[in-house]
Specification:
Elements (H helix, E strand, L loop, with lengths): L2 H49 L1 E4 L2 E4 L15 E7 L2 E4 L20 E7 L5 E10 L8 E9 L1 H52 L14 H48 L3 H30 L7 H12 L3 H4 L2 E5 L5 E2 L3 H18 L3 E9 L2 E8 L6 H10 L8 H14 L3 E6 L4 E10 L4
Parallel strand pairs: 8-10
Antiparallel strand pairs: 1-2, 3-4, 3-7, 5-6, 6-7, 9-13, 10-11, 11-13, 12-13
Helix pairs in contact: 1-2, 3-4, 4-9, 5-7, 7-9
Length: about 450
């Protein structure tokens, strides 16, 4: 899972949890508000009940009941009750039931709010007040209470949540979309970092540079430092390889001189053995130097295949083998590969020399683009090469054979691989097609 998707999912979950907690908190606040409003309304109704009390022949009576018809409807949802001197007066809505007020002590005018069971086992919100009756009502202390079905409050809270849900859903979508935009903007430098690293790998850039946000800049600086250390190591390797080559050339030249003296003294076989050994050593040194140069130059290397092919054809036409052949070049002049021109000439020259050696009448240079790679091929119309030999050359990078083919193709293959490409040998029927697969780059880089 990508970093962006992980952060987006984590942000979405956080938003949903936060909005769920918000909905719960708003529900609790709304419920508390509704309950306060209900208590305030019941306080008014309780005042109406107390104002309507009168002294009758049988004790306290309610001459002027509250106007709400639910007090007069059995189990109507609103109830009142008065306890005085062991007597209980209650609303018609209580029918044959009574409010089971708790045995608590209230000061004169004190108010308590209770949750009590109702006449039909429903939960009631009950407002209770203790009052001292005037002498005209017989005096003494009475407990008056008004209750309402609490389910109405719960229903109001559920209705509030149902009305709130669509807006919370829209808010969640808006916040998630805003979070995605924020992630896209915030993580854009990482995409740029990946593209810059890709340019480094392709040889289109040499450093990441310092134009990065503060959080990314240390990574870019470390990568640039690593690249600088790598280039320094490559330079040291090139120097060591050059020193090794120069150190070996003098002994090799001495061996060749010794071989010449042996040949002059009639020891032809011994001379040829020394010469073959010295030449093999020289080819090995030249190949390793070629690989070192290619690896060192690949970061900023550029080569134009059309120009290199034209130069090779001009040279090979002056050789005894090339003068008798027909040469064709079909390479677009604007094609550029990520390979130094001298290395490209060496690799392509090895393929061209091999083609000239085996061709009967024709050698063709051709270039085809596929994605970000260029397939640069040299085809001859000679006898071709057995599949087993082709596979062996590609698989083992054969270093030599009697025809001299292996070493040249091996050098070409190693140069291509050092540049991030490869060498492919295919039967052209007739002849052989040797293809260098190299990375393309734009000409203006």
């Amino acid at each position: 899972m990508s970093l962006r998707l992980r952060l987006a999912l984590a942000g979405a979950v956080a938003i949903l949890v936060a909005l769920a907690l918000t909905a719960l908190g708003l529900s609790q606040l709304f419920g508390a508000h509704v309950e306060r409003r209900a208590v305030a309304e019941m306080s008014v109704q309780l005042d109406q009940v107390l104002a309507g009390l009168a002294q009758g022949p049988d004790g306290l009576t309610l001459e002027r009941p509250p106007a709400d018809p639910r007090f007069a409807t059995p189990y109507g949802g609103l109830y009142w009750q008065i306890d005085w001197n062991g007597e209980t007066q209650r609303s018609r809505s209580l029918w044959d039931a009574a409010l089971d007020l708790p045995a608590d002590t209230l000061s004169d005018g004190g108010i308590h709010v209770h949750r009590l069971p109702g006449p039909q086992d429903e939960s009631l919100l009950v407002l209770e007040r203790s009052v001292t009756l005037p002498a005209r009502l017989g005096g003494g202390t009475a407990r008056a209470a008004v209750g309402m079905v609490a389910a109405e409050l719960e229903e109001a809270r559920r209705a509030f949540l149902m009305d709130l849900a669509p807006y919370l859903g829209l808010l969640a979508l808006a916040l998630i979309a805003a979070g995605w935009v924020q992630l896209s903007v915030g993580l854009r430098p990482l995409s740029g970092l990946g593209a810059r690293v890709s340019d480094l790998r392709a040889g289109d850039a040499t450093r990441l540079g310092g134009d990065w946000p503060t959080e990314v800049r240390p990574v870019a600086s470390e990568i640039d430092a690593l690249l600088a250390a790598r280039e320094a190591e490559i330079d040291r390797a090139r120097t060591r390889a050059a020193d090794l080559a120069h150190g070996l050339k003098t002994p090799l030249q001495a061996l060749m001189g010794e071989a010449a003296r042996l040949r002059a003294n009639g020891a032809v076989a011994e001379a040829e053995g020394i010469e073959d050994t010295a030449l093999a050593m020289r080819r090995t040194v030249d190949r390793e130097l070629s690989r070192t140069r290619a690896a060192a130059r690949i970061a900023s290397a550029r080569g134009i295949p059309a120009l290199v092919a034209n130069r090779l054809i001009a040279v090979l036409r002056r050789t005894p083998e090339g003068a008798e052949l027909e040469w064709h070049q079909d390479i677009a002049p604007d094609l550029v590969v990520a390979l130094d021109e001298s290395d490209l000439a060496e690799a392509l020259g090895a393929l061209a020399e091999n083609a000239a050696r085996h061709a009967k009448s024709r050698v063709t240079f051709l270039a085809q683009t596929r994605d970000d790679h260029l397939h640069l091929s040299v085809t001859d119309d000679g006898p071709g090469m057995p599949a087993a030999t082709r596979d062996a050359l590609i698989r083992r990078h054969a270093r030599e054979d009697l025809s001299g083919t292996g070493l040249g193709l091996s050098i070409a293959s190693e140069i291509a691989e050092a540049a991030g490409g490869s060498l492919m040998l295919v039967d052209a029927n007739p002849g052989l097609t040797a293809t260098l697969i190299l990375k393309r780059t734009s000409r203006d880089k």
